[in-house]
Amino acid sequence: MFQLVELEDVVRIPPQMLGMDLSKAAAEELSRKYSSTANPELGYIIRVIDVEVDPVGRIVHGDGAVYHKVRFRALVFYPKLQEVVEGEVVEITDFGAFVRIGPLDALLHISQVTDDYLTVDMRQGAIVGKGTGKMIKGGTRVRVRISVVSMGRGMRMDKIGVTSRQPFLGALEWIDEEIKKARQPAQAKAKQG
Length: 193
Prior knowledge:
The protein is α+β, with helices and mostly antiparallel strands. It has helices spanning 22-34, 172-192, and strands at residues 2-13, 37-39, 43-53, 58-59, 66-77, 84-93, 96-101, 104-109, 118-121, 126-129, 135-137, 141-150, 159-163, 170-171. Strand 9 (118-121) and strand 10 (126-129) form a beta hairpin. The model has no long low-confidence stretch (mean pLDDT 89).
């Protein structure tokens, strides 16, 4: 889930940036510190925006920098357990597929693709259902439910697992077929009655 969060911090403005506009210097330093990092409480921090800097800073003896209190907003992506998201398959492996959801890749393990018996065809770069012929490969758009989230610190995200083994989940083409099948009995009743 994407969201905007408000944060407060103290930013260090190094001596070489003291001639710059204070807001611009603070925004650059905050972006360097926060952008593209993972935080267990916030999620994946994508971008820092709307920086407000206290114009009165502090100088620390022995350090040529100035420290300012700042308030800012950050655009974050935090994958929530049981959330249904859409993404694109970016890689097929022996053990499943990686699906890009927001700025991150989640693992769709082969056991979580569908109830069908599946094989991985590495030459085609696809996972194929033996009984149904359903297939996913690189570029396939899928709807999945987030089943595992383990957040790391710093630049790494430990683990995000997803499943498509439920009705109306999987490749978008599969979902369209399920919807058509579900509507057929209702349409037949409408014709009769």
